[in-house]
Amino acid sequence: MECLTPPLDAVPVEEWFCPECIANNRTSGSEQISEEESSSLPTTSRPRARPTRAIARTQHSERVRANVNRRRITQARTAAQ
């Protein structure tokens, strides 16, 4: 986690966010829309009541994601045959 000084050697196991990154994330999503604008959006585009959980993107998590995607593709191909 390079944003910290000194950087962390490992990602904490529990859900944890760097204080600087969490503050930046809050300010970037501060754009508000009116209720009228919100009701005209498709339900998938409407703002959620609670924030989405951010997951750290580490080399390990990227390997896991790649393995999951490969397995899904393999299963989809097998099911299609």
Description:
There is one protein chain. With 81 residues, the protein is mostly helical. 47% of the residues lie in helices and 0% in strands. It contains 3 helices and no strands. The protein has helices at residues 19-28, 35-40, 59-80. It is flat. The protein starts with 18 loop residues before the first helix and ends with a helix. The model has no long low-confidence stretch (mean pLDDT 71). Residues 27-81 are annotated as: Disordered. Residues 39-57 have a biased composition (Low complexity).
Short description:
This protein is an all-alpha fold. It has three helices and no strands.
Structural key phrases:
single chain; mainly alpha; 3 helices; 81 residues
Shape: flat
Estimate the mean pLDDT confidence.
Answer: 71
Mind telling me the C-alpha Rg? 19 Å
**Secondary structural class:** mainly alpha
Pattern of helices and strands: HHH
Report helical residue fraction.
40-55%
How many angstroms does the end-to-end distance come to? 44 Å
The number of strands is 0
The unreliable regions are none
Q: Strand-residue fraction?
A: under 5%
How many strands, what sense, and barrel or not for the largest sheet?
none
